[in-house]
């Protein structure tokens, strides 16, 4: 039997698309799936690529079909399935065979698995782009030993998205570095999506636009500074019709958002790192609250429906500007978090390269990331809000963000991520804040002490100390 250059286990949405992508780039691939019928269907439906695909129906046959030293991609749900598959595979493998977890693992799990693997090669790679990205060019964020990355870099860079000749696949650092960067990517994704959804709510409830008009607004914005995959697909979602009923699809989708955990992990980790990402945290909270549909129904019955028409208080241009400002602020938070993690975990995460691999292939790809890559190349650890290009953009657009948040509040339209972004902006441009009151309170009730502006030293107390 001819042996394949690489193996892939888990032919779900992402695994099947990734396997076809690998085959499409000329690499022979062995595949295995827990449910055998899926493997057979996959081979049957692979068309011209079928010759490059070796389907297998047992782990033993799967391993035997891969050339040594082997490289095996796992594309199964994060958590126990990954541990189960590693445990099942390792006894069948040689010590120099490489296992690559390409799902959305929690980076703490990837750290643990890398340590458990010891000298046996193991990579954790974040893959973004959804099904289409996986099939035709995802963004890939690698973590683990550099030597292991180098063994498969020719395949990963070949299948990755391409931005003007540069592949969107980069090694980020040791152990869970790749999965950490993917988690922050997803956190930014949550905030970006939430801000778009909030603006959709204003267009719908505040301005009374129908779905087709909203799609047209998003399409128009997609030709300007907001040009991005998420704005583009928001237009497609807004204009879609339900194939069964012919009704606008958005009107029949339940207003409760799912989540698999990456946004929540980002918010939790940001708290551990002391690197605040409040827009991302607001987006995670908004998803949680979206699930509380029964409570929201009770609230509406009790208080009356909040959203009120804006009666011309806001223009579409102001909404566009508010989204520009909000987007810069949420990316600034994400990159600050990556910078903090880089120091905390000793990873030396390449911030400009991270912006570069996000320019194509991934869900948060946008024209803005090009300028972010340039800004981060000049000053990698600087808050993007202070980079000249984005400072200019924020100066031009923050007033609109303020007006949108203010008018939304006055008219009962919930905009938690935009509000949080504005509060972050205002906090970060206020040299004399209000935490002096917090320190006074802490000292009053707990003798925690405070610093003074007019003297050196750390442990002063107020007159209540006696
Ligand atoms: N969908 C997306 O847009 C993206 C997903 N990801 C991540 O990629 C990974 C895979 O996601 P996706 O392809 O969407 O998931 P799917 O649910 O479509 O597919 C899951 C695959 O894993 C297999 N599987 C599930 N549980 C086990 C198990 N315990 N042991 C062995 N095999 C198992 C399934 O096999 P079977 O056919 O037998 O059920 C199936 O092949 C996840 O970590 C996800 O978070 C990353 C980026 C984007
Ligand atoms: O990683 C992804 C995109 O980048 C996946 O689509 C992920 O499932 C999205 O997260 P969630 O399911 O929590 O919305």
UniProtKB/TrEMBL annotation:
Belongs to the 6-phosphogluconate dehydrogenase family. NADP(+) binds at residues 10-15, 33-35, 76-78, 104. This is 6-phosphogluconate dehydrogenase, decarboxylating. Keywords: Gluconate utilization, NADP, Oxidoreductase, Pentose shunt. It catalyses: 6-phospho-D-gluconate + NADP(+) = D-ribulose 5-phosphate + CO2 + NADPH. One of its GO terms (molecular function) is NADP binding. It is an enzyme of class 1 (oxidoreductase). One of its GO terms (biological process) is pentose-phosphate shunt. The active site is at residues 182, 189. Pathway: Carbohydrate degradation; pentose phosphate pathway; D-ribulose 5-phosphate from D-glucose 6-phosphate (oxidative stage): step 3/3. Residues 178-465 form the 6-phosphogluconate dehydrogenase C-terminal domain. Homodimer.
């Amino acid at each position: 039997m001819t042996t394949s250059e690489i193996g892939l286990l888990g032919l779900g949405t992402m695994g099947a698309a990734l396997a076809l992508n690998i085959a499409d780039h000329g690499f022979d691939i062995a595949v295995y799936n827990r449910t055998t019928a899926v493997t057979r269907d996959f081979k049957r439906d692979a068309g011209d690529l079928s010759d490059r695909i070796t389907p297998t129906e047992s782990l033993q046959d799967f391993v035997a079909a891969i050339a040594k030293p082997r490289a095996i991609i796992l594309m199964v749900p994060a958590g126990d399935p990954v541990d189960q598959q590693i445990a099942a595979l390792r006894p069948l493998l040689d010590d120099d065979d490489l296992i690559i977890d390409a799902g959305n693992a929690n980076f703490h799990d990837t750290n643990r698995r890398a340590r458990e693997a010891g000298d046996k090669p193991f990579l954790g790679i974040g893959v973004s782009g959804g099904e289409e990205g996986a099939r035709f060019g995802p963004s890939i964020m690698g973590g683990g030993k550099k030597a292991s990355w180098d063994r498969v870099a020719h395949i990963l860079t070949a299948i990755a998205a391409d931005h003007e000749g540069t592949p969107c696949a980069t090694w980020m650092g040791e152990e869970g570095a790749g999965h950490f960067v993917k988690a922050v990517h997803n956190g930014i994704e949550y905030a970006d999506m939430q801000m778009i959804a909030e603006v959709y709510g204003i267009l719908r409830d505040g301005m009374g636009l129908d779905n087709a008009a909203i799609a047209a607004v998003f399409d128009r914005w997609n030709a300007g500074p907001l040009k991005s995959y998420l704005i583009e697909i928001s237009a497609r979602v807004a204009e879609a019709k339900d194939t069964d009923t012919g009704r606008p699809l958005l009107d029949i989708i339940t207003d409760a958002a799912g989540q698999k955990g990456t946004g929540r992990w980002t918010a939790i980790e940001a708290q551990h790192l002391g690197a605040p990402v409040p827009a991302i945290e607001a987006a995670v909270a908004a998803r949680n609250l979206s699930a509380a549909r029964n409570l929201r129904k009770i609230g509406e019955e009790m208080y009356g429906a909040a959203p009120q028409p804006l009666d011309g208080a806001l223009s579409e241009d102001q909404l566009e500007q508010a989204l520009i400002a909000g987007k810069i602020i949420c990316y600034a938070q994400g990159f600050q978090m990556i910078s903090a993690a880089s120091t905390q975990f000793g990873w030396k995460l390449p911030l400009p390269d991270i912006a570069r691999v996000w320019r194509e292939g991934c869900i948060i790809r946008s024209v803005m990331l090009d300028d972010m890559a340039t800004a981060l190349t000049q000053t990698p650890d600087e808050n993007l809000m202070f980079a000249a290009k984005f400072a200019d953009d924020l100066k031009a657009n923050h007033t609109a963000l303020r007006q949108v948040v203010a008018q939304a509040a006055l008219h009962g339209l919930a905009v938690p991520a935009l509000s949080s972004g504005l509060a972050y902006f205002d906090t970060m441009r206020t040299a004399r804040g209000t935490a002096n009151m917090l320190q006074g309170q802490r000292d009053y009730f707990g003798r925690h002490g405070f610093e003074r502006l007019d003297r050196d030293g750390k442990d002063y107390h107020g007159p209540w100390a006696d």
